[in-house]
Amino acid sequence: MTQERQPLELAPNRDEQSRQSFASSLRRHVLIDIAGDMRRQFDDVIQPRHESASDAPLADGQDVHELMKKEPVFKFYSAIRMKAQDMTFAAAREPLERDVDVLRDDATKLQQGNVAAGGSLALNEELEVPRNVSSIDVHRAPGGYTLELDEDDVTAGALYDNAIEIFAFKQFGEDKNDIGMTMANYVRLKYPDFKPSLIVDCGCTVGHNTLPWAQTFPDAEVHGVDVSGQLLRYASARAGQRDVGVHFKQMNATALDYADNSVDVVFSSMFLHELPLKDIRAFLAEAYRVLKPGGLLLNMELPPNSAMGLYESFYLDWDSFYNNEPYYKTFRDQDYPGLIDEAGFGADAFLEVTLPRYTFVGESAFAADIDAPTVFNSQTGRMDPKGTRWYAFGGWKNT
Q1: Given this model, what pLDDT does residue 4 score?
Q2: 190-214 b/e (C-beta count within 10 Å ≥ 16 → b)
Q3: I need a labelling partner for 96 at 20 to 30 A (CA). Which of 52, 125, 217, 231 fits?
Q4: SS3 call for 205
Q5: How many helices (H) and strands (E) would you count in the chain?
Q6: What is the largest CA-CA distance in the chain?
Q7: DSSP states of 127-172
Q8: pLDDT, tens digit (0-9, with 9 covering 90-100), for 329-353
Q9: Core vs surface per residue 218-239: b (16+ CB within 10 A) or e
Q10: Strand pairing of 291-301 and 389-396?
């Protein structure tokens, strides 16, 4: 039995639905239950045993990692988490490969819906895709962000979109857009006099967190920028499916094709940790260049290691060693205010915030929380049904 298929959606059969459900449940079990057991084992047994046997205290997350690598509980956690990650993509890919041609036809039609809503799609076949994208199966996704089976293919975008449905077990919201909704509504509520006319989302992938900016600021022109044309074809179709107009552009965020002082908001979500450090610096400098005086740079990201406890730093850095995220830890080891200062914003321009999930808590509770002190704990930057808080940092360009 196959469920009724909607445009741009997969139609998994009953066996495929079961495999997807199992992979999602396993992911949740690993990240919530097994991770909780591992933390308790560390607190109750592993750390006290280390302290009684050694005069050298644990100094940072890497020390915790070196200690934990010897422990059966960590080996078990890592093995199951890696397997669950691979199962996630395998489960998403089964029905996808069966409907490759249908998805491509859907995308072609729905891209016109994006145009009708005021958006566009501009691809650049001459753009050299950087090796940190083209040569890495990021997140262990087969083919990474540039997977392409045929001309005008949207496989990479469809795999990304449907794998997140399994991967995140609804922790990104019903439409997988909670990060964008949280950040856009933070800006709307925190700075009510700020009326952006041009918003650029860099490293937008399939636009999960781009569309909320267009929905939250309907008078603004919203652009989504990415180096992967494969993702952008899908992103434009996805926007058209939702009747939201966004201008998607194939462009490297380290060399933005915008004039000086022309953009009101430069936004990114879970983007910086996928860049080599030199590209992080280049992007931040570009953001400063293109922003208007009084414009805002806002990066939703993982919190810095310097702000987190030893165990939390170790836990969040897991992906850098086991999930094909080679730049993850290098980024989190940086001084975020220093990066913003170096980019030209100045030390006084730095801002950071930790926020509850907008689509989970509702506007009233969210608005009451936006002035709360920045919080760094086990729920910061982690998917946790008990109360995830997203972290963001950036700066205002001085007038």
Answers
A1: 65
A2: eeeeeebebbbbbbbbbbbbbbbbb
A3: 125
A4: coil
A5: 18, 8
A6: 68
A7: ----HHHHT--GGG-TTGGG--SSTT--HHHHHHHHHHHHHTTTTT
A8: 999 999 999 999 999 999 999 999 9
A9: eebbbbbbbbbbbbbbbbbbbb
A10: antiparallel
Single pTM value for the model: 0.96
Instruction: Tell me the C-alpha distance between 276 and 267, whole Å.
Output: 18
Q: What would the mean pLDDT of 14-35 be, rounded to a whole number?
A: 96
CA distance 365 to 345: 32
Distance CA 17, CA 21 (A): 6
The C-alpha atoms of residue 367 and residue 360 are separated, in whole angstroms, by 13
CB atoms inside a 10 Å sphere around CB 100: 15
d(Cα 82, Cα 384) in Å, to the nearest integer? 19
Give the whole-angstrom CA distance, residue 300 versus residue 280.
Answer: 14
Q: Looking at residue 101, what is its pLDDT? A: 93
Residue 390 has which token pair? Answer: 């997203």
- Tokens (6 digits) for 19: 């495999």
pLDDT at 1 over 50: no
Mean pLDDT, the chain, whole residue set:
95
3-class secondary structure, 202: strand
Sheet (strand 263-269) strand order: 120-122, 247-250, 221-226, 198-202, 263-269, 291-301, 389-396, 350-356
Answer positive or negative: Cα dihedral of 162, 167, 170, 172: negative
Strand partners, 274: none
If you search the block for the tokens 């969040």, which residue do you land on? 316
Kindly list the distances between the CA atom of residue 183 and the CA atoms of 35, 60, 152, 175, 297, in Å, as whole numbers in the listed order. 27, 30, 32, 15, 11
Count the residues in the chain.
Answer: 399
- How would DSSP label each residue in 214-235? HHH-TTSEEEEEES-HHHHHHH
